Amino acid sequence: MNVLGRNELINFTFVTFKVAEMSLPAYSCEYSKQTYTQHQLMALICLMKRLRLRYREIVEVVDLMPKLQEIIGLKEVPHFTTLQKFFKRFGSHFFDEMLEQTVELFDIEKPWVAVDGTGHSCDQASLYYARKIEKQSKKWRKSYTKNQIAIDTQTQVILAHKVARGPRHDSKDAIPTIRKTRKYKPSGFSLDKAFDKEEIHRVIHEELEATSMIPPKKRVKNGKYRLSMQSLFSNPKYHLRSLVETVISVLKRVFDDKNQSRSDRLRNKETKLRNSCYNIYRYAKHLSIQNLKMISTEPFFCKFFT
Length: 306
Hints:
Blueprint: H1 8-23, H2 38-51, H3 55-62, H4 66-71, H5 80-89, H6 92-103, E1 112-120, H7 127-137, E2 145-152, E3 157-165, H8 174-179, E4 188-190, H9 198-207, E5 211-213, H10 224-232, H11 235-238, H12 242-255, H13 264-293
Parallel strand pairs: 1-4, 4-5
Antiparallel strand pairs: 1-2, 2-3
Helix pairs in contact: 1-2, 1-6, 1-13, 2-3, 2-5, 3-5, 6-13, 12-13
């Protein structure tokens, strides 16, 4: 039976559940209680992030949504500590696998990639208080989580990410992020002036056999690829980089800018989860729009039903 429809949250939860099935084993251990599958718990945590709720709140909301429980095969709503402990023990590398699975939902061939970084704060303090303390002490109150992403400029999908504790310069994580896009065979990269380093140019040109479009800094005197940018630089290709700013804006507006977790390890995982949720959100939104345009007698296309 086709469970997808016009409701974006239903589509989001269903797609998350299917992505989790493709990325994770059903149970973390053969000796676990097996009351809930990891796929069900992951779907609930992603829904929590989508609705910008906390653990205690999401279980109360799901208890009022019998259709959603039916879609993911949930016979009993878990206690909020079940979700909390699941997220805490969940390996960070699984979020990288989930991101790769979400990218496969889209038809991406030889993308033009844009790379940039942003930060996610780790507290709930008001902006006024934060600015006042910063002005008085002349320093940041706390560190933040640095989230560097590489996106496909055509579909605006996150292809790869590198998450670490900030503050941190963008160029420090650029090469690992760029190398993660190798499997998609990118045709070129657009990056801002902060990434103007010969090593970054070399990795793009020689390892990925792609084109780099990075505006050169003033008074460039050395570097084969950096010097070539003075004559080969193209404004139209470079300005595709603005699309990564659009993705960052949506990421923060839809899934919130702040991390709720207390430790750096959990904040990094929460940031990775946000990136995967963004790709699922893009796909679910596309399904909702497609279903609105569909004639009732026509078959509904979805990757999970083909």
